[in-house]
Amino acid sequence: AGVRSPAGASKQDVRERVWDHLEASGLAAFPRPVHGRIPNFEGSHQACGSIRELEVFRKANEIKVDPDKPLEGVRLAALQARKTLLVPTPRLRTGLFNKIVPPPGATKEMLQICATSQGVKDFSVPIGLDGKARVDLVVVGSVAVSEKGWRIGKGEGYADMEYAMMVSMGAVQEDTPVITIVHDCQVLDIAEELLDDHDLTVDYILTPTRTIKTNCKRLKPRGIMWHKASYSATGDLRVSYEMLGKIPILKSLRYREKQAGKDVILKDEHPDVANTAKPMALNEKAMAENTRPQAATDSAQIGQQCVESNSLSPRLEGSGTFTTVYVGNIPPSTRVSELKHALREFHATPLRLNWQGAQHRAFLDYKDKATAASAVSSLQGLSLGGKTLRVELAKNQRNKGQVEINRQK
């Protein structure tokens, strides 16, 4: 249908040919140019509308749909059918999913707004790793796809990563169907050697003129591939040490799988690094001295308040000017040592930790606002004892650079 994949073409070659053809043929739709995107195209709403005819859609209760513009019609169809709609957060910066919650009595026009990218922002609630999602159907965007179900995305690998994370958290099963929506010209032959074991395949392809059942037998990703290199030769994103800083919920999932005894060492990470804290780590001996009068064991600290300081930091004895982070929703059974361990794992160790177990909270003091903000970002999605913690700047500091904190005696 106008696009051919020559022998020896790379994934990026295929992407460029599809993007060029969509623009040159007048098939490209807003936002433009389509280069570097999951491309929107003329007839996307017609292609999306045909999903209503699929039995897998009618039977599904919970549907995950990517936030791309050409999938807007699928998001609308899911909302109109009163299904639970989950949309991944952009680049997974603030979590894994947003659950779209239209206002009570939403009209058709309001549902149309909820299906847009702005509607996803305005009418959604975050769902973390402990959100107990059970996805019955996955809908992803593509740059190119073959009738065999082999898919090429825009090159950043987020759809593959999202699916692997859903597998790891038990949100999808081996037989959970995957659908993609494309223009007819985006359906072309893709050489099998371009596919890697982390690539997501699809079971159905919907175009403005066709519904294709691929009968794909290739296995889908079976979880996070921690050992893989950061980028493949084709530019597809895989897990790297650098990525953990960019995707906080990925760091949380890695921590959870490490606690379960899985090998989560990255290919670009020395094994020793995974178990070593950054230089800002709390001085354990000093902390033990500080806490011994208050509690003999971690279990004794539950329900009590304790303040742990790094005695090597002279600033703690100086002005007392720091930026404080609030950690809430801590399960009653959690020990302070568990929180300390998680903080070291996430390289978010504070200068001082104020543990208030009875109130299910803790306060973390950092040297400045930038360090505190980095800690908040790193700890988003962190779960302990089956609960996702609430992590944010302390209430009286959200609009200030630093504040004077009261010394705990």
TrEMBL record:
Keyword Lyase attached: no
Membrane-spanning ranges: none
Keywords: RNA-binding
Domain of life: Eukaryota
Domain RRM: 323-396
Pfam families referenced in this protein's UniProt entry, alphabetically: 5-FTHF_cyc-lig, RRM_1
GO cellular component, as recorded: cytoplasm
One Gene Ontology term of the molecular function aspect: RNA binding
Classification via PROSITE patterns: RRM (PS50102)
Keyword RNA-binding on entry: yes
PANTHER family: 5-FORMYLTETRAHYDROFOLATE CYCLO-LIGASE-RELATED (PTHR13017), METHENYLTETRAHYDROFOLATE SYNTHASE DOMAIN-CONTAINING PROTEIN (PTHR13017:SF0)
Protein name per its UniProtKB record: Methenyltetrahydrofolate synthase domain-containing protein
Provenance organism: Eudromia elegans
Gene name of this polypeptide: Mthfsd
